[in-house]
Amino acid sequence: MQLDISKNSLPVYEALNSEARLEILQLLSDKKMNIKELAKKLGLSSAIITRHIQKLEKAQLIKSEKVPGKSGMQKLSFLTVDTIEIHFPQKIYHSYKLHTNQLGVGHYTDYHVKPTCGIASTENFIGQVDDPKYFMDAGRMNASLVWFSEGHVEYMIPNLLSARDAPELLEISLELASEFPRSNNVWPSDITFYVNDINIGTWTCPGNFSDVRGRHTPLWWEDKNSQYGLLKHLRISQYDTCIDGKFLSNVVLSDLGIKDRNLLKFKISVESDAKNVGGVTIFGKGFGNHDQGIILNLYYL
Prior knowledge:
InterPro entries: ArsR-like_HTH (IPR011991), HTH_ArsR_DNA-bd_dom (IPR001845), Metal_resp_trans_reg (IPR051011), WH-like_DNA-bd_sf (IPR036388), WH_DNA-bd_sf (IPR036390). This is ArsR family transcriptional regulator. Residues 1-99 form the HTH arsR-type domain. By secondary structure, the protein is mainly beta. It folds into two domains: 2-79, Arc Repressor Mutant, subunit A; 90-300, Galactose-binding domain-like (Jelly Rolls), CATH 2.60.120.260. The chain is built from four helices and 17 strands. Strand 3 and strand 4 (72-79) form a beta hairpin. The chain is elongated.
């Protein structure tokens, strides 16, 4: 589950603001339990436990289902989330000038992918699923979701710097998950990033998430399919390359030869010799939790 600091995430923060509800989550992480069992474990009344369960259900941290029991139907609750990430607003670098480009996820200019794979718009699949040749379908320009198990897609971006401009920082933000048929919340994948053919580092994505629906994911997309990714921020500075503020590699901005190029290249790859070959899903506008494509910010003086 991915949260931010808007009011949309308040139900989760409110649900977690209770020692009793935290204990319920701990108990449900081991097995499914009914109201009576939880009440006995916590030494609380069934009425109080029921209110706690309703709060956790509203926050989409747990779900409940009715199943046959010894004395008729009983309601069993179970945990639906194993990871929560909190996304804070993007930092703004006020002292720099800025060129921004936002690419649609289907605007790649080169690709080599292996099934499972596919592309989709906010309205339907584009071409046939699991057939790489459809990655060149003209409809890909309308894609809001791209996924593949192994291989790469590469994007070309205009370099708008003039000869007198000095690049200071390149930031790339995009929403990513791994790739698994349907979905698997625990499915690590090593995703490698290249800028201008330079390997700037590899990040291990923890899963392909479907515990809750993506905030922007269209209604036609089934619940059991991948719903959202994690918003990642790559920053290549004069000192190193970081992802979400954590060190990723020793590649620095000058290694990328930005001043000498009219076009910049950005490649997202799942290498065949990676430790975790778990694929990648790239979310664009109209899918996932963040209504954006691939954003490239080039800060300069």
